[in-house]
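I would like you to sit down with the record closing this message with an eye to the fold:
=====
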Amino acid sequence: MNESNESNARSVDDLCMGPLSPDAVKSRKGRGRDSFDYVPGEYVIATLCEIFGSTGWSSKVVSLDRTTGPELFDKTVKDWNTRKERTEKRWRVSYIARVRLTCLESGATKEDYGFGSSEEKDPLAIHESAVKEAVTDAIKRAARQLGWRLGLALYDKERKHVRREDDDGDDAPRKGKPPRDAEGLTDHLRNRREGAPKEDPAKVIMRVVTALGEVKNANELQRAIVAERGALAGLSNGHKREAWGVICDRGRELDVPEDALKRWMSEDNARG
C-alpha cells in the first residue's frame, strides 16, 4: 500500500471511529416497559455515503428466510374516537436477512444478520414491510462493526463515544443523561421545559419525518409526537404548519383521528 492509500485508510478509520452524535440516537419502547436506544437506518446509510462516497460501498442480501407466518390473528386495538377497545383481524410475518457490506476501494467486507416483522391488515403488505425491516436491521448491524460513529457506540455501557465532535469526552453530557453538576442540571431541566436550545427547523422537520416513517401503530405514533413536542414548540408558525401536515398524513395512514393528534401535541402548544 502506498503512502496515499495509507493516508486514505487512516482517514476512513478516523471517520468511522469518531464519536456518535447524540442527535443521531433515537429511543423507542421495546418489549415490556423498557425502552432502548438505536440509530435509524437512514442515518447509517447516509453516514456510509459520507465516509466512503455514495458509489464507494455496496450492500448485498446474502440470504433471506421467513421465520414465522404469514398468519392471521386477533389484535386488540384502541378506537381513538370512542376510546374503547375492539378486536381486529391482522396478518403477521417475520424474516431474518443476512447482508454483506463491501468497501469497493479496499474490498473489505462486513456481514451480519437482521430481524424484521410486520403486522398489517393487508396480507400482501406485511411481506414488504418485514423484509425491508430485516434488511435495514442487517445493514445497521454490519455497519456497527466499522466503528463508534456507525452505531457501535451504543454497545458501550458507559456511552463514552456518544458525544459531539467538539465535546471533550468523559464529562460531556450524554443523550438522556443529565449533567453531573448542579448548575448543569438546572440548565438541563430548563431546556427540557422550554424546548431549548433552538434547533435548525429543517433538521427538526427531517427528524420528525424520519421518526414518523418508522412508527407502526398509534401508540408508537403518540410516543414519537410527544418526544418531539419541545423541539416543535421552537419552530416558527410556518414550520409548525409544515410539521403538522406531516403528522396528519401519518395519522391518516394509521387511522388515528386528528383530535387525538391535537391532544398529543397540545401540552407544549407545539402546533401554534
